[in-house]
Amino acid sequence: MFAAGSWDALAEHVLCSQHSSDLEAEDARCASDLLSEEEDQDSSSSHAQTKQAWWATLLEQHTKDQGFSIPKWQDPVALFSACTASFAEASVFKELGIPIRCLGTSEPCEAFREFAQSNHDADHWHLTMQDQIEDKPCTIHKDATSCCVVVQPDYLVMGTPCNPFSRQRNKRFHEKSVMQHELAQHTFTDAYLLLEKYEPPSATMEQSDGFSAPLHAGSDDSPLKRFLAGLDSRKFKHGHYVVVHKLDMKIWVKILRNRIWVNFFRRDLYSKQDVVRFSTILQALVKQQTNTEPIEIDELLLDTNHTLWKTELMRLEANSKRCPSSSDDGSGKEWRTQIAEWRDKLSVSSSYAPWDDLNLRARGLHITPRVQ
C-alpha cells in the first residue's frame, strides 16, 4: 500500500525530533463507555453469540476496506491502566476479540471502580497513579505489604485530570492558572514517573482539547508543548517516539467531545517508519468513518421500559422526597431563609431563576454550541 522508498522522507517530515508531532486527525477510537447493551429478544435465533458493539463492527469494516485486518492474537496483551475511569480500553480490546491480561488499574472514584470490576478482571485495583508508582497495597489486597507489577506491560493507557486544561474552567486562560492548578502535578510529574518506571513498548495518554490550547491568553506556549518538552529531561533507558493526534468523537456519535491523544512508541522496538505507518493507517480509518453518518446519542441509551431505567427513576423519586419542600418546618425552612438572605446581600431578585426546567432554554442562559 505504501512505497518503501518514501518512508525516510515521510518519517522525517512527521517526526523531526523525538517528541515531534501534531498530526491533525479525527477520532478513530470512540469511548467504549457508550457501548450498546441491546439484547436479542429472539431466543430461537441462530445468532447465539453476543452481539458486537456497533462501533466495533464499523471499525472492523473500515479496516478491511483499507486493506488491513485485525490479527488473531494467541497470547494476551499485558495491559496497564492508570486513571482508569470506566476502563474503556478493556472494553475496546474485548469487543475487537483481542485477549488481555490487565496488570493493574487506578481510579479514585468508587463508582467507576465498581463498574470496571463488574465487567473486567485485573491483577491490582489501585486508588491513584501515585499508589501505582509507589507499589502501595491496592484496594483488593489491603493487607499486602505492597502491590507491584512483575510483568512488563505491553501497552500503557493513562489519563490525567483535565481540570487544569479544560476550556470550560473559569480563569483557564489567566496567567499561571494552569501550572499552579493543584491537579497539574499529575500530568507534569506522575505521568512522567509512570513512563520512567515501566517504559512500555507503547503507550497512550488522553487529555481534553484544552491541553493544546495556549497556556494563557496571548501565549505561544501550551500545556502540550510543556509536557513534550519535559520528556527530554526525564531519565529513560530507551526513550520514545511521540506522535500527537487531535481527535473528535463527533464522527462516531453526534456529541461534542474533542480529545488529544499522545502516543508513545519505544525507540528500541519501533522505527520512525512504524510510527508513520501507524499515523497513516489511523488517518485513513478516520477518513473512512468521516464518510459514515454518525449515530444519535439517544440510540445508545436504554429503552425507557428497561428494568434498570425504571429502577433508577424510582431511586431518584425516593431521593427527591427527602429534599426540603415548602411544607417543611425544619431544615427546609432554615435553608430557604439563608437563600433569601444571600439574595438580598447580592441584590438578586427573589423571582429570578437562571432556568426553570431541564430544557435549558429559559431566561438567563445564553444560546451556545452546547445549548441550542
UniProtKB/TrEMBL annotation:
Transmembrane intervals: none
Protein's GO biological process: methylation
Stored Gene3D superfamilies: Vaccinia Virus protein VP39
Origin: domain of life: Eukaryota
Cited InterPro entries: C5_MeTfrase, SAM-dependent_MTases_sf
The entry's keywords: Methyltransferase, Transferase
UniProt keyword Methyltransferase, yes or no: yes
GO molecular function list: methyltransferase activity
Protein name: DNA (cytosine-5-)-methyltransferase
Origin species: Polarella glacialis
Organism taxonomic ancestry: Eukaryota, Sar, Alveolata, Dinophyceae, Suessiales
